Every structure is written in structure tokens, then in C-alpha cells.
Amino acid sequence: MSSKLQSSNNIAQARRTVQQLKLEANIERIKVSKASADLMNYCGEHAKYDPLLMGIPASENPFKDKKPCTIL
Amino acid sequence: MAAQEVQPNETLASLKTESETLKTKLEEERAKLHDVELHQVAEKVEALGQFVMKTRRTLKGHGNKVLCMDWCKDKRRIVSSSQDGKVIVWDAFTTNKEHAVTMPCTWVMACAYAPSGCAVACGGLDNKCSVYPLSLDKNENLAAKKKSVAMHTNYLSACSFTNSDMQILTSSGDGTCALWDVESGQLLQSFHGHAADVLCLDLAPSETGNTFVSGGCDKKANVWDMRSGQCVQSFETHESDINSVRYYPSGDAFASGSDDATCRLYDLRADREVAIYSKESIIFGASSVDFSLSGRLLFGGYNDYTINVWDVLKGTRVSILFGHENRVSTLRVSPDGTAFCSGSWDHTLRIWA
């Protein structure tokens, strides 16, 4: 590759990096406090539907073996 | 790409300076909104109790390291792939093998189940992603119907169907991700921006729109717009390769697992890392991460053979699971959240609940 082509490729690459950074710098952001509150709310609202979190009885979990019942 | 006219004031040096200035500005903008830590906000959340999670099933049959696995939407079938070149479809309830395909290459690093449950995709050192329709006839040779979809110039590290059986997203050791049409094999979009091998990807939950996140050996996690091919956000806080990325169920955040022995949580709307899941005693890399259904728990498979369970909000570890006899290489929670599956270099897969 000729050095002229290489240097214009490097410049093209650097130009792309600058464009990308401009894009990323200009996005809209919210505060961590708000973002955290939203994450917590999501967890809270969905907790009761989370079998691994709540633990569900063996009878409802196809992977847990049902214990044999003894009739007294 | 044709060489463009260089503007007089636009030398390489001036562009590099502008780059540095923009990077600093990016950090400043992010820092302005860093008013609190997630675990501080989460102090008022009730602590989690003791977890009893055990191996409920062990899937034996691979002849070498298990590298990847995926659940079928029916919540019981699993596809797994191995260094031995085999791709196996299992019924996780019964542990029966339903299908087996021998790939023409070893190190099948990626596999995925189609949303319909009627096909699986896989690939690895062959640099391709191939789709195999699953036949109801157990005697039929699956390899005969194989369709080559993706072609990369280096190994395939991960693949995922999008919302339908019609499109596949891939990531590769060639540093790119790509979106393909399954029927024609046509490249629909390519994603350039990683500076080294891309190791993992995850699609945003369908409600949140057309984006996906990728992680690579350049220590970066990039969020991409699938339609434009544009990288919309980039995060570089890990200190080593990112082996696994997974969206938080709401789509507003994602977790990553890295060779730097930490898992991290990045919030997309705050545009920053908001939690690190680490302990001094954990010194081996995290290979694979996934969330429980509510997003409260993060399961991490590690190279020290263990699975650590983290409280996502408080940042603490709530459980450590032993059982595998070699590195855990892949881990996914089932679609209905009742169990999760881990695959390991010990040749087995385990179902935990």
C-alpha cells in the first residue's frame, strides 16, 4: 500500500472515530438515581413471577422431582 | 473507499486531539449524572434469603468440552454444541437426546434454537453459521438439509435468531457482527467498530426495539442499531476480554462477564456502568451470564468451575454453586425462568433449580 493511501486511510479512520465519539457524546442521558429506581421497580414488580427468586414447590417445577407420598 | 480530499486543518494529529477531547467530554457528561450508586439506592430493598439451588438433571453425551447451549421456547428442549464437533438437541425433562448432528469442524462455539423450535443454527472454526431444520423423523440425516447462512473471515463466536426463523445475527473472531437472511444467505447488515475479536452478543427484548449488544477482546461492549448498522453506545470499563453479554429483562440495561473476573451492569439510559459484581476471592474469568426472570438475580458461570449467584441491586453474592468439574463455558436461564442450564468443559450440561 502506498504511503499516501495509507495515510489517507488513517485519516479516514480517525475521522470515523471523531464522528462516532460526537454521536456518543450527544445522546440523552438520565441520572443514575432515576435509572436505579427504575431497575428496582422492575425487579419489584416482577419478583412474584420469578420462580428462581421465589422458589416454587416441586409440584409446579417440572425439573424438581416430586417426593413420593405416603398414605398413612 | 476512495481517498477523500484532506481539509487543510484536518491532519491526523488534529483529528486525534479532537478524539481525545471528545472522549473527555463523554466522561464528563456521564459523570454529571452520577449522583448515586445503584447499591445505595437499593439499600431500602429487602435482602434476599438463602437460596437452595441444586443440579436437577445432568446431560451426558458430549465427547468433549461443551461450548454453547440455548433453550427452545418450549422451555424443555435444549441445543448444545461441543469441541468434538457435535451439536445435540436434548429433552431436558427426560435427559433424552432427540437429535445429533456432526459438524465438519471441531470447536462448535455457537449454537442457537430457532424461535419456532423447528431448526437450530451453529458454527465455529468453520467460520460459518449453518441452519439445520429439525426433522420429526429421527432416522433422517439432518446434515443433508443443512443450509449455510453466514460467512465470516474468522471463527464464529456467537449466533442468535432474531424474532423469527428468517434472520440470524452473528459475531466473529474477524471483529465484526452481521445480520443475515436465512433463506437466501444474503448479508443484510454488517456492524463494524470492535477493534478485536467479538466474543458474544445478545438481542434486546423485542419490546425495546431493534438493538443488540456485543462484547469483545477489545474490552468494549457496544450497543448497535440493527437497521442502520450504527454503534449507538459503547462501554469500556472491563479490564480484559468480555466473554458474555446479556440484556436485563426490561431492556434498559445489560450485564457482562469478563476475563477480568468481574461481571458488570451497564444502564443504557444513564449511559454508564452502574454495578460491579466481584470479590477478592474470585480471580478466574466469568465466561457466561444470565438474569433470572425479574432481573433480581444474575447467574455467572466462571472458569474456576463454579456458578456465582449475585443480587443485581445490592451487588452482593447470594450463593455459590458447585458441581461442574471443569470450566463453566455457557449458562442460560430457561424461557419461563423455572431453571437454568450450564454447560462445561467437563463435557456435561447441568439443569439447576
From TrEMBL, chain A:
Protein's cellular compartments: Cell membrane
Molecular functions (GO terms): G-protein beta-subunit binding
GO cellular component, one term: heterotrimeric G-protein complex
Bilayer topology annotation: Lipid-anchor
Domain G protein gamma: 7-72
One GO-annotated biological process of the protein: G protein-coupled receptor signaling pathway
Principal cellular location given in the protein's record: membrane
Subunit structure: G proteins are composed of 3 units; alpha, beta and gamma.
Family statement drawn from the similarity comment of this UniProt entry: Belongs to the G protein gamma family.
Protein name as it appears in the record: Guanine nucleotide-binding protein subunit gamma
Organism: Chanos chanos
TrEMBL record, chain B:
Signal sequence interval, chain numbering: none
InterPro entries: G-protein_beta_1-5 (IPR016346), WD40/YVTN_repeat-like_dom_sf (IPR015943), WD40_G-protein_beta-like (IPR001632), WD40_PAC1 (IPR020472), WD40_repeat_CS (IPR019775), WD40_repeat_dom_sf (IPR036322), WD40_rpt (IPR001680)
Any GO BP annotation: signal transduction
UniProt KW keywords: Repeat, Transducer, WD repeat
CDD domains to which the protein is assigned, alphabetical: WD40
SMART domains the UniProt entry points to: WD40
Domain of life: Eukaryota
Repeat is among the record's keywords: yes
Statement: the UniProt record of this protein carries the keyword Protein biosynthesis: no
First and last residues of every WD repeat: 59-100, 149-190, 191-234, 235-276, 288-320, 321-353
Pfam families: WD40_Gbeta
Subunit note: May interact with RGS9; this interaction stabilizes both proteins and increases RGS9 GTPase-activating protein (GAP) activity, hence accelerating the deactivation of D(2) dopamine receptor-mediated signaling.
Family statement: Belongs to the WD repeat G protein beta family.
Name by which UniProt lists this protein: Guanine nucleotide-binding protein subunit beta-5a
Source organism: Chanos chanos
